[in-house]
Design a protein that fits this description.
Strand content: 5-15%
Largest sheet: 8 strands, parallel, barrel
Distance between the termini: 40 Å
Structural class: alpha/beta
Helix content: 40-55%
CATH class: Alpha Beta
CATH superfamily: Glycosidases
Number of domains: 1
Strand order of the largest sheet: 1-2-3-4-5-7-10-11
CATH topology: TIM Barrel
Radius of gyration: 22 Å
Number of strands: 13
Length: about 475
């Protein structure tokens, strides 16, 4: 952390900057609105082979490539967790989102080998958070599957359902006393798209026409299994809540007067968000996915759709497996109608058939997306589990302050003007971390010096600003309650 004189200088700068935010939103955040920040085990913990931890697919992915940058050490939170909890406390966070490394608890992913040192690590972190009045929001699976489970088929195999259930039950038994908000899987679209549909993330199978959908089918069943285990065995005594995290940008039609562009926008959201949310909140895949993938599969000469068909029993088992809606969102994408390609090589992208721009910052996009979610799924409580701004680093991160303040302002509009029940907001991330292949992309409120042996943490201007917003529970310098 900065020395006191330097910190004072930053606080003055933040106050001056905050004056320009007065036009954004003068409403106070509701009393029960939770401010938080998020992390993920592989991105911050390090200690990749310490104290009995097993090998994950990410460990193997980078090691097999001989990569120069890996998550072997990352932010070294495995050893520096006390400092991280202290920073969370000093920021004033009401919740801290973290994930459990499956292989730190179960080195090969199965109950045949339970690692007590891994359990002790997370117990220490969770207890420290609770002692400091910070609610842990715990993700069961944030992409780091055990290598052993992956070799058995991972999410291409129905066996993952029972393996995941065993793992989740152990977490509920061991940590449930300290956790009121559970997340089964983080961003299943990324798990299936980049890991099973492409070779960008492990297990890098590049099965873009069929494996990507098989992954989604088994992942949803695994999620539902974990949900029902908690619902049936633990909720009555632990009184927590559990859901899955979906991720989606807001999709804006390139021509808002074009019926085709508007239909394209809807299809893009359904293939992204609806792919997993639809089964959880309404039952079954989105109809547009069923129709398009089924029709294209038939035209390709296949005997059945590349999109696995749920049985009615599976639909009923998955439908309703949520206690709140958790959303990761980072920006807006413009989309344009593209004529459907003739049958050819099977692909998620030709199934979708959308021309889109790069993601850009647009605070109004989050309000539109929240309304779309509320209108379609009526999910009750909504938590923004990730939202943040990447840059190239540095302590003077006015761009991050502008970004977060804009999105928080739109969330306030959604709460007060649209009557949406948004109960929390989590910044990605509390600190710079290993962004799945690179240390150059900096999302943190707190800088991490990855070149230093101590992985020194230093508060950025945005950290002081966020601390001030949390303390005042308002974005503007002059705050009023429930302005209409």
């Amino acid at each position: 952390m900065l020395k006191s004189s330097m910190a004072l200088g930053y606080i003055i700068l933040v106050c001056l900057f905050n004056g320009s935010l007065a036009q954004l939103n003068q409403r106070l955040f509701p009393d029960d609105f939770m401010f938080g920040a998020a992390t993920a085990a592989y991105q911050v913990e390090g200690g990749w082979d310490e104290d009995g931890k097993g090998v994950s697919i990410w460990d193997d992915f980078f090691h097999s490539q001989g990569a120069n940058e890996t998550g072997d050490v990352a932010c070294d939170s495995y050893h520096k967790w006390r400092e991280d909890v202290e920073n969370a406390k000093n920021l004033g966070l009401q919740f801290y989102r973290l994930s459990i490394a499956w292989t730190r608890i179960l080195p090969d992913g199965t109950l045949g080998n339970i690692n007590q040192k891994g359990i002790d690590y997370y117990l220490n972190v969770l207890k420290a958070l609770k002692e400091n009045n910070i609610e842990p929001v715990v993700t069961i699976y944030h992409w780091d599957a055990p290598l052993h489970i992956s070799k058995l088929g991972g999410f291409l195999s129905s066996a993952i359902v029972d393996y995941f259930g065993d793992y989740a039950r152990l977490l509920f038994q061991t940590f449930g006393e300290y956790v009121k908000y559970w997340i089964t899987v983080n961003e299943p679209t990324i798990v299936c798209e980049l890991g099973y549909g492409m070779d960008v993330f492990p297990p890098a199978l590049a099965l873009i026409g069929d494996g990507i959908y098989q992954c989604g089918y088994n992942l949803l069943k695994a999620h539902a299994h974990a949900y029902h285990i908690y619902e049936d065995e633990f909720k009555a005594t632990q009184k927590g809540k559990i859901t899955i995290v979906t991720e989606c940008a807001w999709y804006e039609p390139n021509d808002p007067t074009s019926t085709q562009d508007l239909e394209t926008r809807e299809r893009a959201i359904q293939f992204r968000l609806g792919w997993f949310a639809n089964a959880v909140y309404l039952g079954n895949w989105p109809q547009v996915m069923i129709d398009r993938i089924g029709n294209r599969s038939q035209a390709e000469g296949l005997s059945k759709s590349r999109l696995p068909q749920f049985t009615q029993e599976e639909i009923d088992y998955i439908n309703g497996t949520h206690d709140y809606f958790a959303l990761n969102t980072y920006g807006t994408v413009n989309v344009t109608y593209t004529p459907e390609a003739p049958p050819g090589e099977a692909s998620y992208w030709t199934d979708l058939e959308v021309t889109n721009s790069d993601t850009y910052d647009d605070p109004q996009g989050i309000r539109k997306l929240l309304n779309w979610i509320n209108n379609r799924y009526n999910p009750g409580e909504i938590i923004i589990s990730e939202n943040g701004k990447v840059n190239d680093g540095g302590l003077d991160d006015d761009d991050r302050i502008e970004y977060i303040s804009g999105y928080l302002s739109s969330i306030l509009d959604a709460i007060y003007e649209d009557n949406l029940n948004v109960i929390g907001y989590g910044v990605w991330s509390i600190m710079d971390n290993f962004e799945w292949g690179s240390y150059d992309k900096r999302f943190g409120l707190i800088e991490v010096d990855f070149d230093s042996p101590n992985k020194t943490r230093t508060w950025k201007k945005s950290a002081y600003w966020y601390q001030d917003v949390i303390n005042r529970r308002c974005l503007a310098t002059t705050c009023q309650e429930n302005i209409l």
